[in-house]
Amino acid sequence: MLTEAILLEQNRRLREENEELREALRQATARAPAPLPPDVPYLSAKEEAVFRALLQRGVTVSRETIYSDLYGHDSEVLPHIVDVFISHLRRKLARTRYNVETVHARGWRLSVAETQAAVAA
Question: Cα 16 from chain centroid?
Fold first, then answer.
């Protein structure tokens, strides 16, 4: 009888632990970023972060906003590193339907052509 009680208690604890792990997995999955569109080429982690910042906001995004997304507020990296990532991103997106446009004195925005044929034209 004692063994049965011990087994029941272990079973109860394992079920609780299993439920905790399931909840942790649900939360982690909810925080995971959505996959990039399939026509986007391979991007480095920083390039992807810049692309997501432009894609998610859908408006003109300033250098400071992108810099803050990449490095936070306490960093020794110069803010003009964003220009480098924009340049890399433009080069990699050149043959896709995505275009990074400069908005004078304000930042950048991402424009999306309706079709791939529009890019070739």
Answer: 33
36: which 2 tokens?
């990039």
In the chain, what are the domain boundaries? 1-32, 45-120
What are the DSSP E strand ranges found in 53-106? Answer: 98-103
* The token pair that represents 92 in the structure block: 């990699």
Half-sphere exposure of 10 (CA within 13 A, CB side): 6
Give 58-76 pLDDT, tens digit per residue: 799 999 999 998 998 878 8
Please name the amino acid found at residue 35.
P
The pTM score is 0.68
> Whole-angstrom Cα distance, residue 48 to residue 51?
5
Which residue in this structure is represented by tokens 């394992």?
14
8 Å CB contact between 100 and 57? no
Residue 118 has pLDDT above 80, yes or no: no
> Is the Cβ–Cβ distance between 62 and 70 less than 8 Å?
no
| Top-level class of domain 45-120 | mainly alpha
With vertex at residue 78, the alpha carbon angle to CA 72 and CA 80, rounded to the nearest 5 degrees, is 105
